[in-house]
Design goal:
Layout (H helix, E strand, L loop, with lengths): L5 E4 L4 H13 L4 E4 L4 E6 L3 H11 L8 E3 L6 H4 L5 H10 L4 E6 L7 H4 L4 E5 L4 H10 L3 E2 L14 H8 L5 E4 L10 E4 L6 E4 L5 H8 L7 H5 L20 E4 L3 H13 L4 E5 L10 E4 L6 H15 L6 E5 L7 H12 L7
Parallel strand pairs: 1-8, 2-8, 4-6, 5-9, 11-14, 12-13, 12-14
Antiparallel strand pairs: 2-3, 3-7, 4-7, 5-6, 9-10
Length: 344
């Protein structure tokens, strides 16, 4: 029997809605809520049965660890065995915000399903009024991956959550569109120098300006680590129904590819900057002005999801620079495409 999913506007009757969400979470159920990155699917992180419902709803592999969300910095000491000076520095500089810190976990406190049996845990304090209000009223940590079916593009609006999880979860707090649109940066500070396991809104350049050298491995280097310490490291993610191919951000190259694919009988969707709007692709979705990586990050998942509403049989997505937030954008596009580039 499928669960009836209720969607409530966090700005209307907000106290009643937060109270309902807290009651549902305390009863061992799961709730979707907005953060500044994407919508999260939360369960009380100390309740193993509740956390397992996240994996069931998402269809998520059990060896894929979850990030724990907290409402105050002081809570870190409850779940982390050793808070290093680098950790304190990062929390002071970037929390609340889109930075997840991988730290040594205290044994027998969090649900084992959260850490996937590892000796570390990823923790962050989100910078979103709805997420913080929920966490601070709950007064418990929430394990919360993105609120979508596993492998699909992450949700940046409540309607995306409902599209994916209607019938699987009981409650969605609707806080409107998220701001950043890409999942948090995951920084492993158990290593020296620290290692970025997943790029996001807090960039390598921003981190190095404050804490010194930081390593950002390539996709190939990450694949050599068969034990994922953070979400998004091992499995295909962010993919719409039609296959995605990366392509150089060059009008001549794109136009030639569109013509060839259409000649082969394909219906082509194109994800590209605004100056590609005259493309002959069957479907075109803008990812913002060329060079505006912030805009591209905020619109990427929405554009990928929009492709599923079309009859496209193949999707071309233009590449961008890997500097700054571009590293996070290319990380998501490489995951969505399985690393495939279009060639004539």
């Amino acid at each position: 029997m499928k669960t009836v999913c209720k969607v409530v506007d966090s700005n209307v009757n907000s106290q009643i809605n937060y109270t309902q969400a807290v009651d549902i979470l305390n009863a061992g159920e799961i709730v979707a809520f907005p953060t500044e990155t994407v919508y999260g699917l939360g369960a009380v992180a100390t309740n193993d049965l509740a956390v397992k419902k996240i994996f069931e709803a998402k269809g998520r592999p059990s060896d894929n660890p979850l990030i724990v969300h907290i409402g105050t910095k002081e809570e870190v000491a409850l779940y982390v065995a050793d808070i290093s000076e680098v950790a304190k520095q990062c929390m002071d500089l970037f929390w609340p915000g889109p930075l997840t810190l991988i730290m040594p976990v205290k044994p027998n406190v969090l649900a084992q399903s959260v850490t996937a049996g590892l000796s570390t845990v990823g923790i962050r304090m989100p910078n979103h009024p709805v997420a913080l209000a929920l966490l601070q009223q709950l007064k418990k940590p929430l394990a919360a991956p993105s609120a979508n079916r596993s492998g699909k593009p992450s949700p940046t609006e409540a309607v995306h959550v409902k599209d994916d999880l209607d019938g699987y979860i009981p409650y969605i707090l609707d806080g409107g569109s998220t701001g950043i649109g890409l999942e948090s940066t995951v920084l492993d500070i158990t290593q020296e120098p620290p290692v970025i396991l997943r790029p996001g809104g807090i960039t390598k350049e921003m981190l190095e300006a404050k804490i010194g050298p930081v390593i950002q491995p390539t996709q190939i280097e990450q694949k050599l680590d068969i034990i994922p310490k953070a979400p998004g490291m091992k499995y295909t993610h962010y993919a719409p129904n039609a296959p995605v191919f990366l392509i150089a951000c060059c009008e001549e190259t794109v136009n030639k590819a569109v013509r060839q694919l259409q000649h082969e009988g394909h219906s082509v969707a194109l994800l590209a900057p605004t100056h590609f709007h005259m493309s002959k692709a069957d479907f075109y979705f803008s990812v913002g002005e060329a060079g505006s990586q912030k805009e591209m990050g905020a619109t990427l998942y929405n554009a990928l999801r929009a492709c599923d509403k079309t009859t496209a049989t193949i999707i071309l997505a233009t590449a961008t620079s890997t500097e700054g937030v571009g590293a996070a954008i290319m990380n998501r596009l490489e995951k969505a495409s399985g690393g495939k580039w279009y060639s004539a």
